[in-house]
Amino acid sequence: MKKGLLLFLICFTVATSTSYALSWAYKFVVWEGGVYEVTEEFMAASDIGEKIGEVKRMADDRTGAYYGDASNYYEKGTRYYAIKGIDSGTAIAVEEQQDMWVKAVYLHEAPFHWTDILPYILMGIAAFFLFIVLSLRYASKKEPRDQ
């Protein structure tokens, strides 16, 4: 009886420990803190402005987590472009293939991630150390030296 129960628990644990990937509702890209849903509307080359960014990381298929310039569909290096006559806060163009762009429309703000403030933390630490070094240099020049 105990062996049967133990065998059942082992089989149950092994059978339920499978990993699943998320099924995304739509393709999206993240640019400058905004999530843009990629539409099926193709853009003409004459409507494409300058390059404004690119995909730098993929969204996690298991947890759904993403940060920075990310995408759940497009590979790293996929470029974003401004659309002439449209504010980039409203819509951007995503390079689907060489010389083919699709429109991506702004949906909402991307979730906060601690790496969003990392540059400010590093600048603060650098400023603190610079202040200490300059203070020590200034203090050493002000002290009279015994001769």
* Structural class estimated from helices and strands: alpha+beta
Main sheet characteristics = 6 strands, antiparallel
Rounded to the nearest angstrom, the radius of gyration is 26 Å
Cα-to-Cα separation, first versus last residue: 93 Å
Protein name: DUF3592 domain-containing protein
Keywords: Membrane, Signal, Transmembrane, Transmembrane helix
Organism: Sutcliffiella horikoshii
Give a short summary of the structure.
It comes from Sutcliffiella horikoshii. This protein is 27% helix and 32% strand.
Question: Could you walk me through the main structural features you see in this protein, from its secondary elements to its overall organization?
Answer:
Keywords: Membrane, Signal, Transmembrane, Transmembrane helix. This is DUF3592 domain-containing protein. It comes from Sutcliffiella horikoshii. By secondary structure, the protein is α+β, with helices and mostly antiparallel strands. It has two domains: 91 residues, no CATH class; 28 residues. It contains two helices and eight strands; from the N terminus they run H-E-E-E-E-E-E-E-E-H. The strands form two sheets. It has a six-stranded antiparallel beta sheet with strand order 1-2-8-7-6-3, with no helix packed on it. It has a two-stranded parallel ribbon with strand order 4-5. A hairpin with a 2-residue loop joins strand 1 and strand 2. It is flat and about 85 Å long. The mean pLDDT is 83.
